[in-house]
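COMPLEX REQUEST
Ligand: adenosine-5'-diphosphate
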Amino acid sequence: MEVTARAPGKIILTGEHAVVHGSTAVAASIDLYTTITLQIPSDSDASDGLLKIKLEDMGLEFSWPVEKIKDALPDLGNPLSSQPQSCSHESLKSIASLVEEQNIPEAKIELASGLYAFLWMYTSIHGYKPATAIVTSTLPLGSGLGSSASFCVSVSAALLALTSAVSLDLGHKGWLSFREDNLELVNKWAYEGEKIIHGKPSGIDNTVSTFGNMIMFKSGKLTRMKSSMPLRMLITNTKVGRNTKALVAGVSERTLRHPEAMNAVFIAVDYISKELSSIIQSPAADPLSLTEKEEKLEELMEMNQGLLQCMGVSHASIETVLRTTLKYKLSSKLTGAGGGGCVLTLLPTCILLFL
Ligand SMILES: Nc1ncnc2c1ncn2[C@@H]1O[C@H](COP(=O)(O)OP(=O)(O)O)[C@@H](O)[C@H]1O
Ligand SMILES: C[C@@](O)(CCOP(=O)(O)O)CC(=O)O
Ligand SMILES: [Mg+2]
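STATUS: Structure written out below.
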């Protein structure tokens, strides 16, 4: 049995971090993907008894004898793919020791949490079957474009596609697609993976990666959006590496130190996201001209960036991009967890006329 699945990365237009604390955020999927090919031999005699994962872009391969996984995680004997399970502290410790034995190069140690998520989802859904997973990605890792969620969604989709828990319909461009209820299952398993990588994710990244297009997200609930205006974003990668888990934890610590001030910040972000979504979706016959709408969006992005600074997640490299784009009267904000990573700049239609 073999299947290939892919899932997109995302940009967050407004509301990152605050969404973890219950505010509204707006996100859109982008045309960069994580792709996974999963092969599970149907004849166990024909296999080498290993669970392998090949990260092709990095030229890395990791493998574990399934018997060893069984010893480390003995409680997963009866996988129930239709019931997403959270990884307990004990299971995570066992998984960490399985990954530690692989001697990941020090410069790539961040990959460990991706491997934890893979091992958890694989064994929870398929038990101790030998298999090979080959992963490639066009997304930069750890840059705010949701590589972790796109990895988890593609893994979850590939794993579920090879179970009887889902049925696939003929999709578009040669890809099969999941039905809506099956997409929810894909999303729930991916969220369990994101929890292992991020610690305390809001769920917005895996949700937009699973359902695509543009969404509004608040307290685990998604509202699909229909944009009624052109919206072009320039993405600048500062190439400053950072880790979402640490940044999310930093905002929570600041919230514990200054609960009232931070709650006011989160409420302001909620209003910003709601206003942004209503502008983006306002009917074309709206009295506001396109230029007026774009000016409002620019102002909202600037306000959100200021509040992200309040949360302590901006960075000198992000400020440099902000100053540079401002010279051309363009508005920018960080996207994703910040601390480096990517910056979004709105490209208004008047600029595009000159390109
Ligand atoms: N293709 C991949 N293969 C293995 N792990 C991945 C892959 N993509 C993402 N990950 C995991 O996700 C982590 C990056 O997630 P994160 O810090 O949330 O940044 P972002 O989601 O913005 O890219 C990586 O360090 C790795 O553990
Ligand atoms: C900071 C946050 O809002 C988004 C993180 O996105 P990314 O992992 O940096 O792509 C966290 C979350 O919502 O789970
Ligand atoms: Mg992430």
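REMARKS: Residues 146, 148-149, 198, 205, 244 surround magnesium ion (ligand 3) (CB under 6 Å). Residues 259-281 form the longest helix (23 residues).
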